[in-house]
Amino acid sequence: MYDKERLGKIFSDIERYMADLRGMNVKSAKDLEDKRNFYSVSMLLFSMINRAIDLGEEMVSANNLGTPSTYKDVFHMLMKGGIISKRLKEDLSELAFYRNLFSHDYYNFTEKEVFDALSKIGAVNDFARRAKAKINGK
Fold first, then answer.
1. How many domains is the chain partitioned into structurally?
2. Is the pLDDT score of 108 beyond 90?
3. Nearest to 133, CA basis, from 90, 84, 79
4. C-alpha pair distances (Å), 111 with each of 33, 48, 86, 115, 118
């Protein structure tokens, strides 16, 4: 069973973070040379990816798909359960890699890595749309 209140908060956060990212108007890695942009975008990405993982964990649990041991496992289980495509699983797994980079290697990542993650963040919106459709029985 889905926790509708928790899911509502997750969806709301994803939408808010995406709007904030669009508002940053970052078009290239060069835009991230401004440290305010660099740290703001990296934190928004980190937060958005965390919420995608939260959403994935909620979907795994509600659909009795098992117990993931890593963030990437969450998306693998969702693919195996027919909830997301292989392509979306790959994109979300790559974002999980960036999440770990931002979390554990924060003193070492570059403007290029932040921009690469930013260029892939649309996968979180795709996942949120797919999750909403699944929750609503579509």
1. 1
2. no
3. 84
4. 7, 18, 28, 6, 10
* Residue 30 identity (one-letter amino acid): K
Q: Where are the beta strands (DSSP E) in 1-138?
A: none
Closest by CA to 108, choosing from 50, 42, 47, 52, is 42
What is the reported pTM? 0.94
Distance between terminal CA atoms of the chain?
16
Q: Are 50 and 99 in contact (CB under 8 A)?
A: yes
Domain that holds residue 73: 4-135
Q: Quote the CA–CA distance of 58 and 64 in Å, as a whole number.
A: 10
Looking at residues 75-91, what average pLDDT do you find?
Answer: 97
Place of tokens 């999750």: 131
| Side chain identity at residue 63, one-letter code | N
CA trace torsion 122, 78, 63, 65 (10° rounding) = -150
